[in-house]
Structure formats: C-alpha cells, structure tokens
Write a structure and sequence with these properties.
The protein has 269 residues and is mainly alpha-helical. The chain has four domains: 1-71, Conserved hypothetical protein from pyrococcus furiosus pfu- 392566-001, ParB domain, CATH 3.90.1530.30; 115-201, no CATH class; 207-231; 235-269. 72% of the residues lie in helices and 6% in strands. It has helices at 2-13, 34-42, 57-67, 74-88, 92-98, 103-114, 118-125, 131-144, 146-155, 163-175, 178-186, 188-201, 205-228, 231-234, 237-268, and strands spanning 19-24, 27-32, 50-52. It has a three-stranded mixed beta sheet with strand order 2-1-3. β1 (19-24) and β2 (27-32) form a beta hairpin. α5 crosses α6 (103-114) and α8 packs antiparallel against α9. The model has no long low-confidence stretch (mean pLDDT 83).
Length: 269
C-alpha cells in the first residue's frame, strides 16, 4: 500500500526528493531511495534525480544511517551492522566506534538476527515483542538454550507483554523447576498474576525501610510524651542511670542513621 501510494505521488507530482548514490568502479551504488527508484521504474521513467555523495560506500552507509537514526528500530540497525560486518570485515569494536556505541550494543543487535530463532525475529517484526525485551531477555536465553527461547517466545507471542513482564517470565524460567517452566509455557498470564500477588504480599526493601522510619518516628513521639508527663522524675536512681545509658545508645544509633542518610543522599544526586 505504501509503495502504491508512492507511485501515485510520483506520477502526479514528479520526483521531488533525490535518491542518494555514490560512484564506485565506474558505476553508481544506491545508498538511499530504493523504493523511489522502483516506483520510477514502474512508471517507465528513464531519468532519476540523484545526489552523488563523494565518499566511500562504507562512509556513505554510515552517514545515511546517522541522518535517520532517530526513526530506526533495532532490527534495522542489526541488518546494517551485519552487512557492514560481512562486506567490510569490521569487528565488533570497529562497528562500535563507527556508531559511537559500545561493543555490547553492537553484539546485542547482531544477536537479534544471528542468534535469536527465526520465530522470535518474526515476533519482533510483527510488533508482538519489543526489540528491547528480545535483546535483554530472550537473546541471553537463546545463547544458552535455543529451544527454551523458542518455547518461551511462543508462549508470549500473542500477549503483547511489556518488557518488565517478559523479564518476569525470563527470571521465572531461569530460576524455576520443570513444573514452573511448564506453567510459564502453557499459561504465562497465570504465572504473571501469581507473581504479582506475591510481590504485593511481600513488601520491597524500600517499603520495609520506610516502614522502619515511620515506626522509629512513632516510638520517638511516644518516648517524648512520656518525658513530658514527668517520667524521669519518677525513676529511681538505678533506673535513671540505666535510662541514661539506653538514651546514649539510642542517640548514637539515630545520629549514625542521620549521618549515613545525608552521605548517601549526596552521592545519589
């Protein structure tokens, strides 16, 4: 449909945007504009407006991708990286340098088309699975166990899960036994619901820490009210000495908490 619309636009308005070519060994190599070129051929046009970039094919390919990098997905990047690796013999380090990226960034994208099973690649192309989730979770699994990755991919094919949900299934598969893996494959939604219930029932470490702070504040308020009510005057000499020691230990602990919190908060900024 998109190419048909392009043919119609070119027939009505003519070619407005040039294709991009480079000259190499006495011939022109198309860098950008394959669809426009096909549409013009369908219209039997024998003239094509082209911009000739005076650079090598490798430089032209890299520049063209940089110019439209914002709208490019991970699979497109993967195919370009694979082509550059195969045709120009570039290493992972060299590819990373050319794209201002790390070696692991290149490796993850190449893994999308070189390591992931074809069925999972098809899910990414169809929008059933995000490229991010495929790279972060299914790619490591495929490197260790291709069949397991295929099974897990098939289980989530029609659910359109978020990357976080895919991560939950991946973690469950990695750490679970045969029965857990069977549940993930056959009824992934049930497994996700069960994990959600467990997470709500078990507060996170940050929630526990905030609860401790609230409890500490409540205890301090209650202890202050006792002092305001004249408790210290009611204590015997021995009890007062013990209370002094307890108070000093409490003050040291609270002061240590305050100082550590201030230090970590400064590092977190």
């Amino acid at each position: 449909m998109a190419e048909r619309a392009l043919v119609g636009a070119l027939a009505e308005h003519g070619q407005k945007l040039p294709i991009v070519v480079i000259e190499a060994d006495g011939r022109y190599i198309v860098i950008d504009g394959y669809k426009r070129l096909r549409a013009l051929k369908r219209l039997s046009r024998d003239t094509v407006i082209a911009a000739d970039w005076r650079m090598t094919e490798l430089e032209a390919l890299l520049l063209e991708r940089r110019l439209r990098a914002s709208g490019e997905d991970a699979l497109d990047q993967a195919w370009l990286l694979a082509e550059l690796q195969e045709r120009f013999g570039l290493s992972l380090e060299e590819l990373g340098t050319r794209f201002d990226r790390s070696k692991s960034w290149v490796s993850r994208r190449l893994g999308l088309i070189q390591t992931l099973p074809e069925s999972i690649q098809a899910q990414v192309r169809a929008g059933q699975l995000s490229a991010h989730a495929a790279m972060k979770y299914l790619l490591p699994l495929a490197r260790a166990n291709g069949q397991a990755a295929t099974q897990l991919g098939a289980a989530i094919a029609l659910l359109k899960l978020s990357s976080r949900q895919v991560g939950t299934l991946y973690t469950g598969w990695q750490s679970g036994g045969a029965r857990t893996r069977e549940l993930i494959v056959e009824r992934p939604q049930v497994y996700l619901q069960a994990r959600s219930v467990e997470q709500r029932a078990s507060p996170s470490s940050s929630e526990l820490w905030r609860n401790d702070l609230k409890a500490l504040a409540a205890i301090a308020r209650r202890a202050r009210r006792a002092i305001e009510g004249g408790l210290l005057a009611q204590l015997l000499t021995q009890e007062r000495a013990e209370a002094e020691e307890d108070f000093e230990r409490m003050r040291d602990a609270v002061q240590g908490l305050i100082e550590r919190y201030a230090l970590e908060r400064g590092h977190a900024r």
